[in-house]
Amino acid sequence: MRSTDRLGPGDDPGRVLDSIIVEMRMQLHEAKKQVCVAMADERVLRRHADRHAQDAAGWERRAMMAVRASDDNLARAALQ
Predict the structure, then answer these.
(1) Cα–Cα distance, 1 to 24 (Å, whole number)
(2) Which of 11, 49, 52, 63 is within CB 3.0–4.6 Å of 78 for a Cys-Cys bond?
(3) Per residue in 8-51, pLDDT tens?
(4) Residue 63 CB: number of other CB atoms within 10 A?
(5) Rounded to whole angstroms, how far apart are CA atoms 33 and 39?
(6) Is the CB of residue 79 less than 8 Å from the CB of residue 63?
(7) CA distance 14 to 9
């Protein structure tokens, strides 16, 4: 919707623009809040991913130790 679409025959263009600016500021404020939420979610997900990567590396090390000890069954179990 263009700003001129909001103007009626007796409307004050200055007031219409003021209301548009207020609306845009509210939308900007909401967008900034959403960005903050998304950034917090990203930090949490990154920590979870790092933790899972560390867990996977640990299990891979255990599997390699089992292979070196010729315990293939234990190695398979570590990788499952």
Answers:
(1) 13
(2) 63
(3) 778 888 999 999 999 999 999 999 999 999 999 999 999 999 99
(4) 19
(5) 10
(6) yes
(7) 14
What's the domain range around 34? 11-79
Q: Is 1 inside a domain boundary?
A: no
CA–CA separation, 66 vs 76, rounded Å? Answer: 9
What is the spatial distance between Cα 38 and Cα 41, in angstroms, rounded to a whole number? 5
Written as one letter, the residue type at 10 is G
Structural contact between residues 7 and 13, judged by C-beta atoms closer than 8 angstroms: yes
Q: What is the pLDDT of residues 48-77, one digit of tens each?
A: 999 999 999 999 998 999 898 988 888 888
The total domain count for the chain is: 1
